[in-house]
Write a structure and sequence with these properties.
Helix content is 34%, strand content 14%. The protein has 391 residues and is an alpha/beta fold. Helix 2 packs parallel to helix 7 and helix 10 runs antiparallel to helix 11. The structure holds pyridoxal-5'-phosphate. The site of pyridoxal-5'-phosphate has 13 residues, from helix 3.
């Protein structure tokens, strides 16, 4: 059991993660049970009344769901959390809860592709208009806000192009005009960027990535402040969302080691990013934690660390040379994900509408996993030799 007498606010992040939500474990176990519940029974008619007992129906919450929700809410420093079967489900539930026909949404141009698709297709079909804005827009955001604008959506840094947004400034402007501010906080895993302390109302994660951390579960989380919680909770329940009990359990298991894993992801990513910056084949490294990298100043001001995902722009090379480099890698795999223990690399072709992004050469995205960085550097070094051998 977590010590009830502790002032949890004073605990360090690693301690919070290791001890969060332990009150849901029973019989001396340190982990909560995996409750597979649809039916939950009531002993008396009186207990059927609202508030009569803490659990009422599987989808409305079990000790397994409450444990992971409380733990993620505490990680992010928010009021309360709901979990979803994927990051996209979490994002769409948050947007649908705060937008209705005739409303207008301000969406960052560097947003994750599926979020863009949802806006361009589903929201448009529902009569909700989206305007994309430059991630580095600053004060000019004011000019885009209309009387029917309801939500400002941020993703910082963008998970492909890595622009770091001035979240406090944008949130301030949005709040002056009564907007709800949502952030995709997956890159910082709710750990290295404290969304609520920087003015965000709703922090969303593809918990699939760092929270789960082992590349074996799809999962999403939405953490709200107190003001936005009732409306989001109602929307989540109207949509009938929940997540599988095994996935909830695995997400909580991943969360226990989040601090430790992120520390290693950051250390290795910084080391490898520094090495890459010295390579003659490399034009730019897009890693905000790197001094002089784009976004470094705001990152230093607002973040307490960096995860293992960054971008790389190579000097111009033919496609076949890049293919030779990537096809022959042995530790880096190619995959459209990140946040797990394994290193990944993928060519990137980000879609933009208002803030053009034209890299000077082939663009790659790397996720630095938990392998030893020396081995990863050796893998990349052999890759550069293959890149150079194709002319
Ligand atoms: C930044 C970001 N947000 C959201 C998602 C969606 O998460 P999921 O794949 O769990 O639906 C992803 C997935 O890659 C992502 O990179």
């Amino acid at each position: 059991m977590a010590k009830k007498t502790l002032n949890r606010n004073s605990l360090k992040p690693a301690t919070k993660l290791a001890s969060a939500a332990r009150e849901y474990a029973e019989h001396g176990a340190v982990n909560p049970a995996v409750y597979r519940a649809s039916t939950i029974t009531f002993p008396t008619v009186a207990s059927l009344k609202p508030g009569g007992q803490p659990y009422v129906y599987g989808r409305r919450g079990t000790p397994t769901s409450r444990a992971i929700e409380d733990a993620i809410a505490e990680l992010e420093g928010g009021y309360a959390c709901k979990v979803a079967p994927s990051g996209v489900a979490a994002i769409t539930a948050a947007l649908l809860s705060f937008l209705k026909s005739g409303d207008h949404l301000l969406m960052v141009d560097s947003v994750y592709g599926n979020t863009r698709d949802f806006c361009d297709h589903m929201l448009r079909g529902l009569g909700i208009e989206t305007t994309y804005y430059d991630p580095l827009i600053g004060d000019r955001l004011r000019d885009l806000i209309r009387p029917n604008t309801k939500v400002l959506y941020l993703e910082s840094p963008g998970s492909q192009t890595f622009e770091v947004q001035d979240v406090p400034l944008l949130a301030l402007i949005a709040h002056e005009m009564g907007l709800v501010v949502m952030l995709d906080n997956t890159w910082a895993a709710g750990h290295f960027f404290k969304a609520f302390a920087h003015g965000v109302d709703i922090s969303i994660q593809a918990a699939t990535k760092y929270i789960v951390g082992h590349s074996d579960v799809m999962f999403g989380s939405v953490v709200c402040n107190q003001a936005t919680w009732p409306r989001f909770k109602a929307g989540y329940e109207y949509l009938g969302l929940f997540a599988g009990p095994d996935d909830m359990y695995l997400a909580l298991r991943g969360l226990r080691t989040l601090d430790l894993r992120l520390e290693r992801h950051m250390k290795s990513a910084l080391h490898i990013a520094e090495w890459l910056r010295q390579r003659p084949e490399v034009a730019t490294v897009l890693y905000p934690a790197l001094s002089n990298a784009p976004g470094h100043e705001i990152w230093k001001r607002d973040f307490t660390g960096a995860s293992g995902l960054f971008g790389l722009i190579l000097k111009p090379k033919p496609e076949a040379a890049v293919a030779a480099m990537l096809d022959g890698l042995s530790l880096f795999s190619m995959g459209y994900s990140w946040g797990g223990f394994e290193s990944l690399i993928i060519p990137m072709h980000p879609e933009r509408t208002v803030a053009p992004w034209h890299p000077s050469g082939p663009a790659l995205r790397l996720h630095i996993g938990l392998e030893h960085p020396d081995d990863l550097i050796a893998d990349l070094e052999a890759g550069f030799a293959r890149l150079n051998s194709v002319t």
